[in-house]
Structure formats: structure tokens, C-alpha cells
Amino acid sequence: MADERKRYRISRRGMSFAGIAALLAALLLPQIAYAQNYPSKPVRLILPFGAGGVADVTARLVTERLGEKLGQRFVIENMPGAGGINAARAVLSSPADGYTLALFSNGTAISVSLFKNLTFNPVTDFVPVSSMGYFDFIFTTQAGSPYPTLAEFIKAAKQKPGALNVGTINVGSTQNLAAQLFKSTAGVDVTIVPFRSSPDVLIALLRGDIQMAIENYSAVQSHIADKAAVAVASSGPVRTTFLSDVPTVKEAGGGDFEARSWNAIFAPKGTPPEVVRTLNAALREVLDMPDLKKRALELGIEAKASSPEEILSRLKSDIDKWAEVIERAGIAKQ
């Protein structure tokens, strides 16, 4: 009788294991099949920026190759709006199936602390896929300026508190917050002047209204080439490949300074992990293409993929970093 009970328990255990295996197969096989067929139609990548900027150019450069790699078109949709709310809403209102994706940037991290009523949480409402590109900002002076190096600019700023002007685009932009960070790390009192656009910043620089500009390389590239402006520092942790003779802000005496922006692809929470892996693997191949890397560098962008965990970590650390800068600068929430 005891032997029969033992055999019965073993039989039930075996049936239990078999049942669990069958359940797991039922759950996983459709997802695996879905991923194998992904993408089977065009994919939307929604940008919280207008056309023509660094994020837009990066996205179009990368998604063209991504579409070729995966056999489906990737369609860029520009939905600019304060804090990226319009773009986020469009992505989150779409099915979490991998066919509607979001472009996040350093600006997404800034928005968490800059806007009172941000209607989405980039960390909990989305899942990371991969970075696409990183880029530094260039500290630039007018040709013939009495401050031909950043060290001399810092020295003059300390001698004449509040007398020197630094131009950036609008309050709360990465360039603008980089200027605020520079004031703190370099220990200088300069006046930060915000402008509506990059061309406005450069016009002000060339006519002497401001003594320094902090801008994307693509915005100042032609002026540097024409020798109308001089690059005196780059904002990243190491020198840029395209301006290797220009020191970083830290090297030039700007203290423990680093301000680097990035663009990345995120998907709405609930997107199948297999789809995320498919996209990540394809992006790694695309972003490692020599001709794409070369073209990106010409625009001042370092094309570089990441693991989902790496770009999520970057997003979180930048949320914390820029929150401190915003609070220290006393920038009112919008």
C-alpha cells in the first residue's frame, strides 16, 4: 500500500512538472514566434523635437540603416512639445508591440525636474532599448577675442564678476544647464544669456554681444572652419575625435565638469523582451558600420549602441545630476 502511495505521489509530481512545462511553452512560444516575425510592418519612431536638429538627424541616419537591416521602414514622426509630453503620450497610447518607439535624450532626463506636470515617468513607463549616439558641446569664442583660451576666459571672469556673457539656447536646455554647471565647477560669476535658437546665439557671438557660446558642434562647425569663431573647449570627459587639439573644460581649468548629451530608443512598458532584444542586436550592427560612424562624426556625434541596462543607468544618473543643477541655479519649474 505504501508503494502504491509513493508511486501515486511521483505520478502527480510528474504530471505537475509536465503541466508547468506545457504552460510555459504555451506562454513563450507565441512570443518567440512574434519576435521571429518582427517587424512585419513599418515601425514609428516618435521624436519630441522638430525636424533638422541633432536628434532628428541622428534618428534619420540610424533608422535608414535599421530599416534596411530589418526589412521594414522606420518612419520618423516629429512631435515637439514642452517636456516631450506630446511624443510620450503618442507612444504610451499605442500598443506595446514594438511598432511605436520613443526617442529619449538628455533633455528627457532634464524634463523630470524642469516641468511641474510631466504626465509620464521615463523610468517606469518605458523600457530601454539602446543608445544611438553621444555628443559634446563646444565652448566657442569670437575670432580675435581677448579670451583665446578657456583658461584666460576663466581668469577674466574671476577678475570681473558678472561682466562676461555666455550665450546658450533657451533656459532648461542642456546647453543652458551646462553653462550653469560651468559657473559652479569653475567658480565664476558670468551672465548666462538665453536665446531662442542656435543661429541667434552665434549671431550674438560674432557681433560681440556675448563673449562665449556653448553649442553643438554642428551649429558652430562652419564658423570654426571659416575662422570666424574659435573652439576653446569641449564639454565631455575626454577630447572629441573631430577636435582632438581642443582641451576639455576640465583640462582647461573648469573644475570637475562634464556635460554630454545623448539620444536613445525606448519602448513603452510591456513591449515583449524578444522584440527589445531584436532591436538592440540590430542597432549594435548598424551603429558599428564604418560609413555610418564616419558620417555621424562629421556631425559631431559618436554613434554608439549600448545594452538596455547601460542606457537606463545613464538616464537615471542624468535625472539626478541635472536636478541638482536646476535646484542650485534656482530655475523655476515650467
For this structure, the CATH topology of the largest domain is D-Maltodextrin-Binding Protein, domain 2
Order of helices and strands: HEHEHEHEHEHEHEHEEHHEH
Rg over CA atoms = 25 Å
Shape: globular
Percent of residues in helical segments?
A: 40-55%
Number of domains: 2
**Mean of residue pLDDT values:** 91
Uncertain regions spanning at least 5 consecutive residues:
none
N→C terminal distance: 77 Å
> Considering the protein shown, what is the CATH homologous superfamily of the largest domain?
Bordetella uptake gene, domain 1
Look at the helices and sheets and give the structural class: alpha/beta
Strand count, sense and closure of the main sheet? 10 strands, mixed
Strand coverage percent: 15-25%
Can you name the CATH architecture of the largest domain?
3-Layer(aba) Sandwich
InterPro entries: BUG (IPR005064), Bug_dom1 (IPR042100)
Family: Belongs to the UPF0065 (bug) family.
Pfam families: TctC
Protein name: TctC
